């Protein structure tokens, strides 16, 4: 198949295609983040990077079988300002529509966040399909509800694999991921002062009266909250776990596992960039589940 991937990021789409053994003849990737490109080409050297989506001219990319797209989604997100089509960045959505109309691929797939019904209806009317909502929690240890618009036929929800946070946790992690005493005090004070913040921390740290006391939680039988690109710049909504009586944040490898990527897939760039990429892009096994229906329809 010839693939055109817009906002390709670190080539999670490519990983998904490989998981279901869909042959890739050419894979064109439109991406402008240099770190994402570095990770993508490290893992898949045959990717053809074509840079900015706004510069794509269809005559240069003919006979595309699959057009895939998962653009920056903050302007639609229920958690954000919800400017949607009033956001200047929404022009990127219409770049996708332009390329879709010009390329006329056999299949297309658009991924985005949960959003207001009025926005869903607008996108559905433009694409002539209704989205399917899939929570990554069915196939991973992470809660991540997303909408998928596609003309790939007969797509239905995957079966729950019952993967929990305990299934992806590393042992003997580097001490650099442990919270410093300063951050511990801030975290615990925050937990004491704002009960609402507890929902952002996956039940791994009990409400503590005194900052010097940390209670060990024996069970990790839960799902991790949704990874985001910005969660690692602060601490209020970052997933922390109690590990050998130390409180630490999740490691990049653990976040890769939450996105069902191979260990160290994002290695080679800073941890900051790894966290950003892993929060921004897709759960590979969810995409692979959708791509399996291509194989069924092509029989």
Describe the structure concisely for a colleague.
It contains eight helices and nine strands.
Give a verbal description of the structure:
The protein has 299 residues and is α/β, with parallel strands linked by helices. It folds into 2 domains: 2-160 and 282-297, Vaccinia Virus protein VP39 (Rossmann fold); 171-250, no CATH class. 29% of the residues lie in helices and 14% in strands. The protein has 8 helices and 9 strands. The protein has helices at residues 12-19, 34-43, 91-103, 117-127, 181-193, 252-258, 271-280, 284-297; strands at residues 2-6, 26-30, 48-49, 66-69, 107-113, 132-135, 145-150, 240-243, 246-249. The chain has a 7-stranded mixed sheet, covered by helices on one side. It has a two-stranded antiparallel ribbon with strand order 8-9. A hairpin with a 2-residue loop joins strand 8 and strand 9 (246-249). Helix 1 packs across helix 8 (284-297). The two termini are 15 Å apart.
């Amino acid at each position: 198949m010839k693939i055109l991937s817009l906002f390709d990021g670190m080539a999670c789409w490519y990983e998904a295609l490989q998981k279901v053994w869909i042959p890739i003849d050419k894979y064109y990737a439109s991406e402008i983040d240099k770190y994402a490109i570095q990770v993508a080409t490290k893992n898949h050297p045959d990717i053809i990077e074509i840079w900015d989506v706004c510069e794509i001219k269809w005559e240069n990319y003919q006979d595309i079988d699959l057009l895939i797209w998962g653009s920056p989604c903050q302007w639609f997100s229920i958690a954000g300002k919800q400017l949607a089509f009033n956001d200047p960045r929404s022009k990127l959505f219409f770049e996708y529509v332009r390329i879709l109309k010009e390329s006329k691929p056999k299949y297309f797939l658009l991924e985005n966040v949960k959003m207001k019904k009025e926005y869903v209806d607008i996108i559905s009317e433009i694409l002539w399909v209704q989205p399917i909502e899939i929570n990554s929690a069915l196939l991973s240890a992470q809660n991540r509800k997303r909408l998928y618009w596609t003309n790939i036929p007969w797509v239905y929800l995957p079966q729950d694999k019952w993967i929990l946070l305990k299934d992806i946790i590393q042992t003997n992690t580097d001490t650099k991921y442990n919270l410093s005493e300063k951050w511990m005090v801030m975290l615990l004070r925050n937990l004491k002062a704002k009960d609402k913040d507890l929902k952002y921390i996956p039940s791994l740290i009990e409400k503590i009266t005194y900052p010097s006391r940390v209670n060990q939680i024996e069970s990790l039988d839960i799902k991790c909250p949704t990874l985001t690109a910005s969660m690692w710049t602060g601490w209020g909504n970052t997933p922390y776990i109690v590990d050998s009586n130390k409180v630490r944040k999740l490691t990049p490898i653990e976040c890769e596992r939450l996105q069902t990527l191979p260990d160290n897939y994002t290695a080679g760039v800073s941890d900051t960039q790894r966290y950003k990429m892993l929060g921004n892009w897709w759960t590979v096994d969810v995409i692979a589940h959708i791509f399996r229906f291509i194989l069924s329809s092509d029989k």
